[in-house]
Design a protein that fits this description.
Shape: globular
Order of helices and strands: EHHHEHEHEHEEEEEH
Number of helices: 7
Strand order of the largest sheet: 2-1-3-4-9-8-7-5-6
Distance between the termini: 60 Å
Number of strands: 9
Strand content: 25-35%
């Protein structure tokens, strides 16, 4: 069975900005999904903010192996109930790939517990994305760096937790550097943050960027069954311990008052 990927796009700039619409006439989400579908092991579809439940119903998320997330102008418009739903699925084992300005999304800030803030500048400068973890599966098939003629600058400090792995570090024409490819794990779910992808530049048409996204989907995929009890606090009574156990000392329930009557 192919890896079931859903590309979630905010789909705001494509409707309101002529420059973005010319670069991505069907939306960034559609361009990304088309790039993923070049890999026969991946079956990618799309969802957008404007759909009922943002296109991320319980049923659809349950059937999703990897979710890709691009947002920018409407982070606050994402329903908190949907964010909690996505978070639960990541804990259960669904992969999550957060793209570009998705660093400020509710879902990434919730999963990392940090502000995810950074420096930025929109000046169309050159970006050189250095591969600093050459043997990582996400970097498979790449050269020593990816060159992008025009991109928005993101600069350190990037207020995220220390990652499991740093795959890419970017250098920008103005001199800043940025950790632009980071991996995390929350519960059973793998998370990858990938920096490039400003809406006014054709970044998602770049062959190397598309290769990274396909590699990332494969890396984030967890074939195991969902860990549905990941958030449950499960009591193990004395009579069901692996080894014989004698209760000792008081316990909370022993102090409870008996019901009247």
């Amino acid at each position: 069975m192919p890896i079931k990927a859903v590309v979630w796009g905010e789909n705001v700039h494509e409707q309101t900005d002529e420059v973005v619409r010319e670069i991505y006439p069907d939306g960034m989400h559609a361009t990304i999904a088309a790039a993923l579908n070049q890999d026969k092991a991946i079956e990618a579809t799309t969802a957008t903010l404007q759909e009922p439940e943002h296109g991320l119903t319980e049923k659809r998320l349950a059937a999703t192996d990897v979710l890709l997330w691009w947002g920018h102008a409407a982070h606050d418009a994402v329903d908190d109930a949907i964010v909690e739903r996505v978070q639960r699925r990541v804990w259960e084992g669904m992969g999550l790939i957060v793209l570009h300005s998705g660093h400020f999304s509710k879902i990434l800030r919730r999963l990392t517990g940090t502000p995810c803030a950074l420096k930025w500048r929109e000046a169309g400068e050159r970006e050189r994305i250095w591969v600093v973890n050459r043997n990582h599966p996400i970097a498979e098939g790449l050269g020593e760096c990816i060159e992008l003629e025009h991109e928005e600058m993101y600069g350190e400090p990037f207020t995220v937790p220390e990652p499991m792995e740093t795959v890419f570090i970017s250098w920008f024409e103005g001199g800043e550097v940025f950790r632009s490819g980071l991996t995390y794990q929350r519960g059973a779910g793998r998370i990858f943050y990938f920096r490039p992808g400003h809406e006014t530049y054709p970044t998602y048409h770049n062959a190397d960027v598309q290769k990274v996204l396909r590699n990332a989907v494969r890396w984030a995929y967890n074939p195991a069954k969902p860990w549905t009890t990941v958030a449950d606090g499960i009591n193990v009574p004395v009579g069901k311990t692996k080894e014989p156990l004698v209760e000792k000392g008081p316990k909370l329930n022993s102090h409870a008052k008996k019901p009247a009557g």
